[in-house]
Amino acid sequence: MQGPLKPAPAGPNGLNPNSPFYKKREKVHPKKVEGPFRRFKWIVLFLTLGVYYLTPWLRWDRGEFSPNQAVLVDLANRRFYFGPIEIWPQEFYYVAGLLIMAGLGLFLVTTSVGRAWCGYACPQTVWTDLFMAVERWIEGDRNDRIKLDKAPMSASKFAKRASKHAVWLLIAVLTGGAWVFYFTDAPTLFRDLVAGQAPFVAYATIGVLTFTTWSLAGLMREQVCTYMCPWPRIQSAMLDEDSFLVTYKAWRGETRGSVKDKAANPDSIGDCVDCMACVNVCPTGIDIRNGPQLECITCALCIDACNDVMDKLGRPRDLIGYTTLTRDVAESKGETLPPMWKVIARPRVLLYAAVWAGIGIAMLVVLAGRARMDISVAQERNPVYVVLSDGDIRNSYTVKLLNKEARPREFDLTVSGLDNARLSVPVTGEAPAKRIRLAVRPDGVDTYLVQVRVPAASIREEQSQILFKATAADGDGDTMETARFTAPERDDDEQGDDE
Amino acid sequence: MSADPKDSSNSSGPGTTGHEWDGIQELNNPLPRWWLWIFYACIAFALVWMVLYPSWPIPGGATPGTLGYSSRVEVENQMRELEAVRAAPLKGLEQMALADIPKNPQVFQAAVEGGRSAFKVHCIQCHGTGAAGSKGYPNLNDDDWLWGGSMEEIHGTLVNGIRYHANDNTRQSMMPAFGKDGLLTKAEIADVVEHVRAISKQEHNQAMAARGGAIFAQQCASCHGEQGQGLKDFGSPNLSDGIWLYGGDRASLTHTLTYARAGVMPAWNERLSEATIRKLTAYVHSLGGGE
Question: Which of A160, A209, A265, B148 is least enclosed by beta carbons within 10 angstroms?
């Protein structure tokens, strides 16, 4: 089934016939690096992980009928709480809007500063960074780890490996554990989890996320970005010659040569001393000097590493630096560069920013003005009408009353459009009336079968439009919906079928 | 030293699969090794699945699998669980006095829902999916009841049926075939038809209706009442309202008087459990016309 692993000699056209179908993974041992980008990555790591782990524990007082967890995805009751905002399933377009904003935000960031999401904020990057820090702490830096990999199994190697995986698994369990807290009351679930009384699905979710965290951040790492994630493939559509990317300035670095070479031939030898520092720190194991690559997550650690070397050599910084294709070409010709903000504030970026902000503002406006009660009326279709013995026509409707406030409320229901229409809810056994009062549970929906009875004299057409109106008994708002009232075909001559 | 990304001749660049047709070569971008292992793992998973669960079709079904899983057994288990869940709100349904069921919201609601399902299986063939009936089959949604619309009366009709040959307690009554049996002449029948149209406030011939009224008082009032208001003991319909089981037009009324009408409903006591009959009673009662 598998192709030969050894590469065959190149064919006449320079391509390898029968090249291997499967590539053996080359393990990456990133070296420790210090610098402004590394510091920035640490800050993002602490912020994002802090938000992730602590958010479920924030409280928010919503009164006695609603949960007091600030951020809660209550799947069982189909409610999503985010601080003062509560989203019902039928308001899911807010979440859709957020997702669209997230997508556009990704485009916006990628267009202006390249794959900043991949390099700094993506969970795969953040957790991999954390796992690498643990690895470095237990097994040592790059050279120690390479040595350890090659060393035969021994007690000390086993101890190092075991403790590394133990810490990884601990982080992984906490990661999965934090996830489930978003879906139910965190303190209660924590007690149940410890006591072994939590629902199976909670343990299963933690188990699955423990496995994915451990395997993706510990074992798979750059393989996730290169082979599993679609974003590296899509990003090329977002980038143009004015996108900021981590770039090796080949015009300055080439031809590579040692300090001695350069001293001998200062005109033909460039600034790159081929020290491999940029390659050694790369978490995806690539050589940035080969140009922009699919595997590059633009974490900019090679910038830190290279600047360190340039400083030591007393050469100018940013042999590897954030620049755009246009700027790189201009810089190589010695032209003056336009200011940074002009590159970032180009039409494409501004358009993305405008659409992104527009959706955000539209959502806020809609959110601020949304109704806290709602009515939905569906006419019963089978049978559509019933003729009563006194000649009245009766239609039935399934009326759903939504009370989005966290307190029990009562709504007065009336109907207009047909004279002398009377309403009743048959299960109450009460006589039909022009106005009926219906209770609706706090933060919920109550469904009533409502019958509307209309004297035959009021009816002009087979189909009449009627209007249901629910008015809050406390005077705080009303809501309406139209419905159809159906009457038998008006045939004054004969009733019923001919035989 | 520098690697030219366009140079494919080094071994890490894209090679070809060795496939070549008319000089066109297929480039090869090798997949990672671990992908291959996941593929093998999936095959292993499938093999294990084939042993554990029903998989290969064979005549009369499929290979059973060593776990003994079957989707039918699964459905049965789920039905049992459902029954257990439903038993709680329906507690006391069979012991309760019939009239008390609607006063007990929890039991009533659960019984109505159960009745709704049972109705869809046993009753819609005649009464229609919405219980609106059709010609000869009463509409159960209205407030006009031939044999009574209280819980007891609906229950009685369900248990023993109407004019059902195999049940001794069945609801029984018979309208004479006035025309066929020669009890009334065609002219007299036409007069009675006009009278019935008069009492049901339809357009009619007054002279004929006046003559028909006299015949009605003699022949019909004993069952249908002097005003034609009907009598539930005999299941005789109210002729003065706007609801017609067989039609209130002249042709239908003439046919009814000439040949009589005698609808039949089966007795359900031998086919359905008392619990199901009570659920159906609750459902029919809830349709809006219960008394």
Answer: A265
